[in-house]
Write a structure and sequence with these properties.
Order of helices and strands: HHHHHHHHHHHHHHHHHHHHHH
CATH superfamily of the largest domain: MFS general substrate transporter like domains
Shape: globular
CATH architecture of the largest domain: Up-down Bundle
Helix content: over 70%
C-alpha cells in the first residue's frame, strides 16, 4: 500500500470535475454542516434536558460548552493528523467516530454520561471542519477556490442558525434523543462517500510517517483551556474569586497556558504552530474570528433561552424565530464566495460587522410584549451581517500561506472560532443570569406601600379577584420577565458593540488576500 507508483511521484492530484466534484462537495459540506449543527441543535433543548436530568438551565448549558471546548482543544491536531495519516483517512475516521459518539449521546441515561459523550463528540469531530476545508480547496481548480470556500463558509453560517429550528422540531415532535440520532445516517453517508470519492488522494501526501505527536503540548492545552472553561462555567455558582476552587482553576489555567506558549515556540514538532500569529493577516483574521464568534454565539444561545423561558415560545417556535437568520445567508454565501477575489475582503467584513452591530442595537430595544415578527425580522437582517464576515475572515487568515501550512492554519483558526463560541456561551449565560438578578433587585425596590403606582396596581389585581399572595406572586412574575428581557437587551448591546469594535482591527490586514503561488497549482 505504501509502494510508490506513477501517481504519487510528487505531482499533486488533479482537481475534480463534473459529477464527482459535485458529489464530493456535497459530502464534505454535509460533514462540516453536521459537525457545526451539533454546536447549536441542543440550544432550544436546554430547558427540556435540564428538566429530564434534574439540573438547572445554567448547568444544562454545559451540554453546549463541553462539546465546543473539547472540539477547540483538539482542533490544532488537524495538521498533525493530516500529515501523519493522510487528509482523507483522517477526515473519514473523524466522521465515523463522531457518529459513534452521537449514538452514545442519544443513549445517555444520566447527565454525567451525556457530558462525557458530548466531550467525545468534540474530541473525535474536531478535525472534521479544517480537513473538510482543506479537501474542498484541493479538489477545486485555483480559479474556483473562492467559490469552494464560499460553500464551506455557508455551512458554518447556516448550521448554527438551522440548529435551533431542527432541535425545536425534534423536541416538540419526538424527544431530545433524536437531536443526536439524526447524525447516524448522515455521518455514515459522509464517511462512506468521501472514502469512495477521494480515497486515492492520500497516496499523494509524502512523508506521512515522519509526523511526531507533541504530547506535552496537548496535555498543557487540555489543562489550560479546560481549567479556564470550568472556571467560566462554575464561576457564578461558586461566587467567583471568593471561592478557593475558582482561584485554583484560574492559577492553573494561567500557568498551563504560559508554559504551553513557551513550550510550543521551542518544540521541534509543535502541536500548534504559534508562529502563524507572526503573520499579520493570520493574526487579524483569527482574532476577529474568535471575538466575532463570541458575539455571534452569545446571541444564538441567549435569544432561544429567553423566548422559551419568558416569552412563552415552544422549542419549535423559538427555533423558527432564530432560523430566519439563515434565509439570506443561504443566498449570500455562494455569491460572496464567487466574488471574494474581486472585492476587498476587508470591505465585505466591515459591512458584515456594521450590519450585525446595527441589528444588535435595534434588537436591544425588545420589550416583554414584543411580537413574533419583530424578533424574526431582526434575525433575518442579522443573517446578512453573519454571512458577510465568516468567509472573508477565513480568506484573510489563510492568505499567502503555502499549501503545506493550510491544514495547520485552518485548524488553528477554527480553534479560535470554537474558543470564541465556547467562551461566548459561558460568559453570556453567566452575564444574562447576573444582570437579570440585578435588574430584578432594582425593580423590586419600587414595590412597597409608599409607592402609589405599585399599591394601585396591586389594588387592581385584588379587584380582579386575586387574593394578596396571588397578586404579589403575579407581580413577581411580571418583574422577573421584565428583568430577563432587560438582561437580554444588554447582551444584545454588548454583542453589537463588540462586533463594531472589530471594524478598526480588520483594516490592519494587508492585501492581497489570496493563496501563495505554491498553493495555487
Amino acid at each position: 500500500m505504501n509502494t510508490p507508483s506513477a501517481t504519487n511521484t510528487g505531482a499533486p492530484p488533479l482537481a475534480l470535475s463534473g459529477i464527482k466534484l459535485l458529489l464530493a462537495t456535497l459530502a464534505l459540506g454535509l460533514g462540516s454542516f453536521m459537525n457545526i449543527l451539533d454546536l447549536t441543535i441542543v440550544n432550544v433543548a436546554v430547558p427540556t434536558m435540564a428538566g429530564d436530568f434534574a439540573v438547572s438551565p445554567t448547568q444544562a448549558t454545559w451540554i453546549i460548552t463541553s462539546y465546543s471546548v473539547a472540539e477547540a482543544i483538539m482542533l490544532p491536531l488537524a495538521g498533525y493528523l493530516a500529515g501523519r495519516f493522510g487528509t482523507v483517512r483522517s477526515f473519514v475516521a473523524a466522521t465515523l467516530l463522531f457518529t459513534l459518539a452521537s449514538l452514545l449521546c442519544a443513549a445517555s441515561v444520566s447527565f454525567s454520561m451525556l457530558l462525557a459523550a458530548r466531550v467525545m463528540q468534540g474530541v473525535f469531530g474536531a478535525s472534521m471542519i479544517p480537513l473538510s476545508q482543506t479537501l474542498l480547496t484541493a479538489i477545486y481548480p485555483p480559479h474556483k477556490r473562492g467559490m469552494a470556500l464560499g460553500i464551506w463558509a455557508m455551512t458554518t453560517v447556516i448550521a448554527p442558525i438551522i440548529g435551533p429550528l431542527a432541535g425545536g422540531w425534534l423536541i416538540d415532535n419526538a424527544s431530545w434523543h433524536w437531536l443526536f440520532l439524526v447524525n447516524l445516517p448522515v455521518g455514515l453517508l459522509v464517511g462512506i462517500s468521501v472514502a469512495a470519492l477521494l480515497g486515492n488522494r492520500d497516496a499523494h501526501q509524502p512523508g506521512q510517517r515522519d509526523q511526531k505527536m507533541d504530547w506535552v503540548g496537548l496535555c498543557l492545552l487540555i489543562v489550560g483551556i479546560g481549567s479556564l472553561q470550568i472556571l467560566l462555567d462554575k464561576g457564578n455558582e461558586l461566587d467567583w474569586f471568593n471561592s478557593g476552587i475558582i482561584v485554583t482553576l484560574a492559577s492553573l489555567a494561567v500557568f498551563a497556558l504560559l508554559v504551553f506558549v513557551v513550550w510550543e515556540l521551542d518544540a521541534a514538532s509543535p502541536l500548534v504552530d504559534l508562529r502563524l500569529f507572526a503573520r499579520r493577516n493570520f493574526l487579524v483574521g483569527a482574532v476577529c474570528l474568535m471575538l466575532g464568534s463570541m458575539a455571534f454565539f452569545g446571541v444564538v444561545v441567549i435569544v432561544p433561552l429567553w423566548l422559551q423561558a419568558f416569552q412563552g415560545y415552544t422549542a419549535l417556535w423559538a427555533g423558527k424565530t432564530v432560523a430566519f437568520g439563515g434565509v439570506l445567508a443561504v443566498i449570500l454565501g455562494p455569491v460572496i464566495g464567487a466574488n471574494i477575489g474581486r472585492v476587498d475582503a476587508r470591505a465585505i467584513t466591515t459591512f458584515g460587522f456594521i450590519v450585525f452591530a446595527l441589528v444588535g442595537f435595534w434588537s436591544a430595544r425588545f420589550t416583554p410584549d414584543i411580537d413574533y415578527w419583530s424578533v424574526a425580522i431582526s434575525r433575518l437582517f442579522m443573517g446578512v451581517g453573519i454571512s458577510c464576515f465568516f468567509l472573508p475572515l477565513v480568506t484573510i487568515s489563510l492568505s499567502g500561506l503555502p499549501p503545506e501550512r493550510v491544514a495547520a492554519a485552518s485548524g488553528l483558526s477554527n480553534f479560535m472560532r470554537n474558543l470564541g463560541a465556547s467562551f461566548g456561551t459561558a460568559i453570556t449565560t453567566w452575564l444574562w443570569a447576573s444582570e437579570a438578578a440585578q435588574y430584578h433587585a432594582r425593580l423590586m425596590e419600587n414595590i412597597h406601600p409608599y409607592n402609589p403606582v405599585a399599591t394601585d396596581y396591586v389594588e387592581q389585581l385584588h379587584r380582579l379577584g386575586m387574593p394578596g399572595d396571588s397578586a404579589y406572586a403575579y407581580l413577581e412574575n411580571i418583574i422577573n420577565i421584565q428583568s430577563y428581557t432587560l438582561a437580554t437587551d444588554h447582551i444584545l448591546t454588548i454583542s453589537a458593540a463588540l462586533m463594531l469594535s472589530l471594524v478598526t482591527l480588520i483594516w490592519w490586514a494587508k492585501p492581497p488576500f489570496v493563496a501563495s503561488r505554491g498553493g495555487a497549482h
